[in-house]
Each structure stands twice: as structure tokens, then as C-alpha cells.
Structure prediction request, 268 residues.
Amino acid sequence: MLEQAIESLTAIWKNERGLIVASTGVAASLYFLASKIYAVHEQSQLRKKWNSAPKDVVILHQLPRGKFTPSISPFPLKLETYLRMAGIRYENDFTEPKSLENKTPWITLNGEDVADSQICLELLADKFQKDFSCHLSPEEKATARAFQIMAEDHFYWTGVLWRWVYTKGKTLRQIHATFAPPLSLKIPLVCRRMKSQAIGQGLGRHAEKDVIEMGIKDLRAMSHYLGNKSYFMGEEPTELDCAMFGMLAQLVWNMPGSPFERLLNNFD
Prediction:
């Protein structure tokens, strides 16, 4: 009799447990579906807002503001500097800083989305006839391109490694205007992702002291070329200056305690 009772109770428990598990699974599925529907609705509302912008007004999608600079990333700062220099009307959007290509910044112009700061800049220069480098000779344009690539594809990664790998994102709370607890929880994930990207790029494979030395050599090359000129390519600003400002502003205001900041304060 006791064995039968135990078996009966076990059967009831198994049945009830199955119902509980099934109910939990249904609830989780419904929550996931509702979240997806809400996200689609929000995206649809944002899309309507962006597409309703006046003709030829650029919607600049970028990261939220920094504490000391308009952006803690050099690329949004580069593009916004160009928009201001060119006098092109624009509106900022901080709700969707990453494009479908996972790039920041990106723009929406007359309903069309364009990602990558350089692609955006070149498109705008062509559309609005705001090419500030048109007076440069072919040789000068080649020099400007070489310096920009050095800054954005080499020196940039020394800054990435300093901020996200060597200091593990600890300086972010000092430079981010709206640093909040949820953001701090994401930092370890971002650090791992940026380390992986730096390894893929190549600089992340080197020792820290070697990376810092490479960055210092880049900065000295920039300084020697700039010399006493008002701008990198002469006495008038070009698109290169937008890129250089975006990059150099990071080490001036957004890399507290870095060897690059110390070098800047003691440049010879």
C-alpha cells in the first residue's frame, strides 16, 4: 500500500511539475515575443521620426555625449566637426548609435541610411559641394590620406588598447557624461570584444610597452608635420583636420593618466 501511495504521489508530482515547466516555458516565450513586438514598434516610430526630417537635414546617429567632449569616440566627433565646418544642417540622435553594420556614427539623409564616418563625409562633401581639400595638389592629397590612415587605422588602436585593455575601461566613468550602473555591467563585455578586435587588427598582439611606443612615434610624426602651420595641410582647414581633431581630442580630454596625455603636456 505504501509503495502504491508513493507511486501515486510521484505520478502527481511529475504531472504537476510538467505543467509548471510548460507554463514557465509559455510565459518566457510570450515575454520574448512581446519584447520583439515592442522593439519593432519602437524602431518603426524612430524610423518615422527620422524620415520626417526636413529635406537635406542630416540625422546624425551617434553615442551619447561625453563629459569633456561631444563624443568619447573619435569618429562621431570627426563627422560632427565636418558638419559644423561645412554649415550643413543636422540633428543628433542618441537613441540608435550603432548602424546595422554595427558602426558608429551613421546618418540618415532624406530617408537613406549611410554608415561609416568617412563614407558619410565623402557623400556629404559631394552632395553639398563642400570639399575642403579640392585646392590641394595630388601629392598633398596623398599626404593627407596617409596621415589620416595612420591616425585612424594605427594610432586609434593604441588608444583602444589603453582604454579597454590596459585600464579595463576604468577611466570611462571619468569621461562619460551619463555613466550609470547598467553601463558598468557592460564594461567587461566591451573590454573582451575590443581586445579581440585589437588582436585581429594586429596591435593587440604586441606587448603594452611596444604599443605605447608605436603610439608615441605616431604623435611625434603628426607634431613634426604640423609644425607651426595653423592646420595640417596649411592655413585653411581640410577634412583631415576633422579626423585629426576627433582623434587628438580623445588623448587631450578622454584618456586621463595615459602616457599620450603626459606626452602632450611635455611635448618638445
User: Anything to note?
Assistant: The chain has nine helices and four strands. The first strand starts at residue 58 and ends at 61. The first helix runs from residue 2 to 51. The mean pLDDT is 87.
